[in-house]
Structures are given as structure tokens and as C-alpha cells.
Amino acid sequence: xxxxxxxxxxxxxxxxxxxxxxxxxxxKFKPVLTIALWLLIGFLGYQTYISIYEPxxxxxxxxxxxxxxxxxxxxxRDAQLAHRQVTGKFxxxxxxxxxxxxxxxxxxxxxxxxxIIDEVMTKxxxxxxxxxxxxxxxxxxxxxKDSLFKTSTRYKTMMNVPGAEAGAKFEMxxxxxxxxNIKIPVFEATVKKAVLLYDQSKDLLIQENQVIxxxxxxxxxxxxxSMDEVKTGGNWPKTYGDNE
Length: 244
Prior knowledge:
This protein is α+β, with helices and mostly antiparallel strands. It has helices at 2-24, 30-87, 94-103, 119-125, 144-149, 193-196, 202-209, and strands at residues 105-117, 130-143, 171-179, 182-192, 221-225. It has two domains: 2-53; 54-240, no CATH class. Helices cover 48% and strands 21% of the residues. The relative contact order is 0.12. The model has no long low-confidence stretch (mean pLDDT 84).
């Protein structure tokens, strides 16, 4: 905005100079000075246009690529949550996570309330006494792949960063953190904004990395999960879709 105002002011001043040249400069010098000033006006006009157009295009590209990346991060999160549900921990590599999806199954259970004779209390009081219990019935199993992805095979390429240069992949880590002497599984999948916006203006990328806003993706990366806290949400705002 500052550059735009400065450029606009210079253009107006230059136009004023063109008129002054036309009015006060001797005829033999007018053509050269007039051409030079109009060239300056054209250059500043172009720079002003670029200063407005480039951020608009940057935001269009950014929003499109962020949306694609966020969908991939959601797939990674869903796969990791299934892995934890079945194995009790998160996977620390994509090969293992993909193999898990291909082969693992959920166990389907049903909880129901029931009651049985409480032998201790019955013996103590001499009359039949019951106690409430919960019975868990196993109903069968269902494929993790069918449950999460149905007929889609996109999970096989979920490590690839959409919109980035060929070969760019998400970084993924998994492990445990300790809270109240209990080890809790955690994971994190992330991609740097610089990787995703590799072909965009470096100056605008620097600004994007410094974003602190409720409507923006704060920090220099898009990520889901955390290696520092018990969290499986993403760091994008709701405007990009569900982050929990």
C-alpha cells in the first residue's frame, strides 16, 4: 500500500512535469524530455499495477493450494487415528501407515447392560442380590480401508504434497509424550509454506510466513497434530474446513 501511494504520487508529479515542460521548456528540448517523462509514467504505472495484481494472484494460488494440502492432511489424520485405535499408537512412516490401511480391520462391538447374582452380597444377607454389569459383545470386523476411503486409493499417495514441486512430501513424526506419568501417543504431519508456494514471490512468501491472524494459517507451515502436546487438530482456520 505504501509503494502504491508513493508510485501514484510520483505519477501525478510526473504528469505535472510533462505539462510544465510543454509550457516552459524550449521547443528543441521538449520531445526528448516529454518522451522520457512519459516512459517514467509508464514504468511507474506498470509497477503500481504489479504491486496490486501480484498479491491478488498470490492469494488465489495460496488459497487453492492450501485447500488441497488441508484435504491431504485430513486423510493423514484419519489414517493415524485409525492406527491408534487399532494398535494403541501412531505410525511414524507412510509406508507402515499405508500397509496398515490395506490390511487392518476394526472390531465392531456392542455394549449392553445386564445384571447377575452378586454371590458375596447374597451370601451375606441370605437373599438373592443382583448387581449391574456391562457386557461387550463382539459383532464382527470391518476393513479400515473400506471404512475410511471406500473405493478410493488416494491414501496410497497421501504423502505427496499437492500443488508443490514433483517429489515434495509431507514430513511426519510420531512418538509419545508423558503426562502424569502416563505415556500418551502423539503425531505430527507438516509441510512448509515455502515448499508449497515455491514458485511465488519471495517477498510475499516472507509476509505469509509471518501471518498472525484468526483468518490465516499462522506460522511458516501447515500441519496437523503436534509432537509437543496431545492434539490431533490442524493449524488452519475454519474457513479452510474442519480442523478438528
